[in-house]
Amino acid sequence: MEVSNFASFCLFAVISAFTPGPNNMMLAASAATFGFRATWPHILGITVGFNLMVVAGLLGLNELFSAFPLIYNTARYAAFCFLLYLCWKIATATAPQTVSDESASITTASQPIGFWSAAIFQMVNPKAVIVIVSAITAYTDVSDSLSITHIAIAGVFVFVTITSTALWSYAGSMIGRLLENQRQLRLFNIIMAGLLLAALAPVMLASMKLF
User: How many helices (DSSP H) and strands (DSSP E) are in the chain?
Assistant: First the structure.
């Protein structure tokens, strides 16, 4: 890849990673509710899941899905059901509260989205799929075997993914500090869950028409 093309790809990757999308909205909601530190498994799950898809795309897995679309469509249908579960989890999330009794203090709260849930979500995230397909189509030659170009693309995606997810999570944790009570936090999470559904609804409906 020429230097100018690589610079163009880096700009594409940065813009794609830092602009609002399903992952970033989920991270902001999680960090606002549970804090920045508790959101790290979610951050790492997105980073690993997204970049495994990048590697799969570079290795030509997209050609397998093109040849056997039923496999991909079935997987997406199952993933959409999983998405509804994630939206419900976001909308009903509550911040940790400590309940004290005579013998102990018990912390009660819903749980943040974990590593595996975040990683699995990437297969149904339309922004992630579009970004990966666009990058591979525009900046690589699919007829080539594994090359330094593929390694560079994968490396850049790892860096921008971990950076953008961490920053969005930190921003979410700052928002959480401004929310004064559980009611405001619940309203914020419901709004974020609604935005997530709205962002993915067109893709969900289009996929369901295939069945």
Answer: 9, 2
Cα separation values, 104 from 99, 100, 108, 110, 111, Å:
9, 6, 13, 20, 21
Total-model pTM: 0.76
What is d(CA 91, CA 55) in angstroms, rounded to the nearest whole number? 32
Quote the domain boundaries for residue 65. Answer: 3-208
73 class by beta-carbon count within 10 Å (0-12 exposed, 13-18 middle, 19+ buried): middle
Question: How many domains in the chain?
Answer: 1
Instruction: Kindly provide the residue ranges of all beta strands, DSSP E only, lying in the chain, ordered along the sequence.
Output: 97-100, 105-108
**Cβ count within 10 A of residue 61:** 13
pLDDT in tens, 58-92: 877 656 656 666 666 666 666 667 777 777 877 77
